[in-house]
Amino acid sequence: MSATDQGRLAVLSRIRDALGVTGRDRTREAAVEDRLRRHKRGTIPALAQADHEALIELMTTMLVNQGAEVTRASTPEDAARAMAEDLRAHDLPFILRMGSDPTLGSLPWDAAPALQRRIGPAKAEDRAALSRAVVAAAETGTLFLVSGADNPTTLAFLPETHFILIRPGDVVGSYEDAFDRLRAIYGEGRLPRTINLISGPSRTADIEQTIVRGAHGPKRLHVVLLV
Amino acid sequence: MADASFKDSAARALADAKFQRALLNVKRGFIVKRAAAKSKLPEFDQLRDEARAIKDHTLAHLDLYLEAYERKVVESGGEVHFAPTAADARGIVLRICRDAGARLVTKGKSMVSEEIGLNAHLEAAGIEVAETDLGEHISQIRGEAPSHIIAPVIHLNKEEIAEDFVRTHRGLPQGRPLGTVQDLVAEARAVLRAKFIAADVGITGANLLIAETGSSVVVTNEGNGDLTETLPRLHIVIASIEKLVPTLEDACTVLRLLARSGTGQDITTYTTFATGPARVGDPDGPRQYHVVLLDNGRSEILGGDFRAMLRCIRCGACLNHCPVYGTIGGHTYRSLYPGPMGAVLTPALYGIDHARDLPNASSFCGRCEEVCPVAIPLPSLMRKWRERDFERGDPPLAQRLVLKLWALAAKRPRLYHALGSGLVPFLARLVKSRGSFRSLPFGSAWTGTRDLPAPQGKTFHALYQEQKRSGQS
Fold first, then answer.
1. Distance in angstroms (rounded) separating the CA atoms of residues B384 and B373
2. Model pTM?
3. Backbone angles phi, psi at B396, to 5 degrees
4. Beta-carbon contacts below 8 Å between A and B
5. Are residues A22 and A127 in the same domain?
6. Which residue from B356, B353, B327 is spatially nearest to B343, judged by alpha carbons?
7. Nearest to A124 among B197, B284, B295 (CB)
8. Which candidate from A12, A157, A214 shows the least CB-CB separation from B226?
9. Which sequence spans correspond to the domains of chain B?
10. pLDDT tens-place string over residues B360-389
11. Measured between alpha carbons, how far is B470 from B462 in angstroms, rounded to an integer?
């Protein structure tokens, strides 16, 4: 028996001794299987069960309170322009790092002709990046980003400025609603390598409880909400 | 009676003005913020009951959930390593790092890695370890243990940290401005960014493990956990076995309580679900994903009187609300896990011989249990440790004698009343009009900083009887 198997056996048998069980009890196995299969919800906060208009409002309020900037763009052109305008206002190069997400690729980038787009994962020297959130939970203004070539994870952490675009139909109420969307995309019990739940710009309060933005990740998070 | 060194370090903590100033930040920050966050979520208490039930259910089926979790990790391309002891866990991590030819390891904040002494073990093998959470980075350059489970340097002021940065951040200009918290954060960001980019292996803890999907969950505000697990070739998760919950829904319930209870945020800035290594076509992410599952005494706790302690989600609320922690700080406990949760967990992990003072360092005010998001009965668990300690006859003779005498009187009402009605007027006469004692034989620990009020007039029982007779009660 390998050391790994020995460790595994030791831990599992100690647990079974402590619980006074064998590990082959049909009732216990059924309880576990049932729970995993049904993934029953707990209490969902009332504020996460509002109508869509109220959820968009809640989402915006939560994000702003958590230090993000939020732009509501009424057209895709406005969304592209809002990002260009942000870079101009902050004196940043007119370059956006982004993945190969088709929704982002098909934005009317002609509306911001000076803006260059570089496709691929973030590099250390990148100043600004754009990702798309596949879904967002309004209850705490939390955006769900998934790893992959469409939206590489590094985009969300290396550059100092991070834009996240979200389509209006992708704003749901609760975390559970958001995970149901992911189950619909990836299948039961399967998730992409990384799901990043992002609720604001990077921050720390480790020194004297003083909140400072831009601890290790982005100093600014700009959420562009297509409405 | 507390052993001399615990008493000494508590006394030093009380007399240290700088330290006391830093500790005020606990009260100013965490307590107020938690109350505000809780009041905005009317479902909080209901969620608390549900979270307790989730943890109890998982613990009662822990063997089966661990097997289910392991299957999902393997299915997603990761590896699971079971570590019965701290030494096993250290060995496993070192072997993985060596196999990968690692020279630099970055780390997210992990109490379990502190528990197993991981950094020293890797460093002894010639591997550089960089803590990346700002508080942990400061602890590391000071050569100190964290003094709080979620705010490692809550005991320090910014001036002390600036001195540490000048001393340890090499190659930066002397006399650079480090007067503000912003300056300090900016410098740490630059120093650690270089480490993130160069690291071969990233090690994180886990706030939760999810059996349904084989995922590990890490919450941070800084984003250091994400850079740690995304940039290097390998990601190693080190977590204790009780971090498991069955489903994503269960994780949601716990997450609603975790940040609100700890930092008083509705949610932390980053909550990251990691499931296996990079997939085909992923342009970033680690090539290998390992989970080291640590037992280190937990299976024993599971079978005994302290099982409820395994519900703990390490939010830190009991530390933040504890008047004793708030006065003496984390280091005085001389245990990695301080405060009320530490007072219960430390003797359970290491034996009461190593932690006799901890369950005694409590005023039993009950706030810890009140704010605990999984309703751990911390005061009664501390009391249980005290009883065990007493039954074993370990407390010093004088302490046992006093308690025996007290019990002798307390169990005999007549004797108790006779002693009381004699003693009270005697004590009252001793101090006459002043009404309090300035000093007492054997009581200098109390009277050194405050007067002890003397009993006034008659005993409670005597007054109660009088009122009853005159029909007022």
1. 21
2. 0.93
3. -60, 155
4. 272
5. no
6. B356
7. B197
8. A157
9. 41-299, 305-391, 412-469
10. 888 899 999 999 999 999 999 999 999 998
11. 13
